[in-house]
Design brief:
With 231 residues, this protein is an alpha/beta fold. It has one domain: Rossmann fold (3-Layer(aba) Sandwich), CATH 3.40.50. Helices cover 31% and strands 30% of the residues. The protein contains nine helices and 13 strands. The strands form two sheets. Strands 3-2-4-5-1-10-11 form a seven-stranded mixed beta sheet, sandwiched between helices. It has a six-stranded mixed beta sheet with strand order 7-6-8-9-12-13. The longest helix is centred in the N-terminal third of the chain and has 14 residues. The two termini are 24 Å apart.
């Protein structure tokens, strides 16, 4: 069965930003158990997928991987290539960006059946922010803010490969409205700050950090009181 690394956020070193997810990326490669794993980058959530891939290509090549990229034009015009790249991948990485766009694209491009089939193997599915929400039952997302239809974060339904709820970038002030959205519900949400990730192997859940000062929580309402259980 698939293994997962759900990343709460962090800069990967594009442009002039610092590289903040080093230890998490190293762990993703270790999870494959291979010396030279095939790394597949899918950038559908981002408006800057080419430059995003250029950065990820260097990171994962330095970690011993063979990186490849599913460009949108390939997805649109060469379904056999898409199927081959997904089939051959040891790591499939979905970047951050617009969660709604990502879900719409992988649905309209008929990628979901390929991912479902691949999930039966020992592939490592990795996702940053929107890419992490993708695999979950629900995610607390800024997709309506990005599309100028709301000023607040909202839950969005993911693929449900994992029966959990996920909130990235939990240290951001507006993400703290999660408390309001959980009131009078029985939902539990994994809420991760940047530079942290939720690793899932079989039924074992672990927190991986690139910065020991960063936090991860399991948030819910317990006896009518908001609970942030540190993980």
């Amino acid at each position: 069965m698939a293994k997962y690394m759900l990343i709460g956020g962090g800069d990967v070193g594009r442009g002039n930003t610092a590289y903040e997810t080093k230890e998490i990326d190293e762990e993703i490669v270790k999870m494959t158990g291979k010396d030279n794993p095939n790394f597949l980058f899918i950038g559908l959530a981002s408006s800057f997928s080419d430059s995003y891939y250029d950065t990820m290509k260097k990171i994962y090549k330095d970690l011993g991987c063979t990186p490849v990229y599913l460009k949108k034009k390939n997805i649109l015009h060469n379904p056999d290539l898409v199927a081959t790249k997904i089939k051959e991948a040891d790591i499939i990485y979905f970047c951050g960006g617009d969660t709604e766009k990502l879900l719409q694209d992988i649905t309209s491009y008929n990628i979901i059946p390929l991912l479902k089939e691949k999930a039966q193997s020992d592939v490592v599915f990795a996702g940053m922010s929107a890419g992490a929400i993708l695999f979950c039952r629900q995610g607390f997302s800024d997709y309506k803010i990005l599309n100028n239809t709301s000023t607040d974060y909202e839950f969005i339904t993911g693929l449900g490969f994992l029966d959990i709820n996920f909130c990235p970038h939990y240290e951001q002030e507006k993400r703290l409205s999660l408390k309001k959205h959980l009131e009078n519900t029985s939902l539990e949400v994994y809420a991760l700050e940047n530079k942290t990730a939720l690793q899932i192997i079989d039924k074992t859940y672990s927190i991986i950090k690139s910065d020991s000062t960063k936090k991860a929580y399991l948030c819910s309402y317990q006896k009518n009181k908001y609970s942030e259980k540190s993980l």
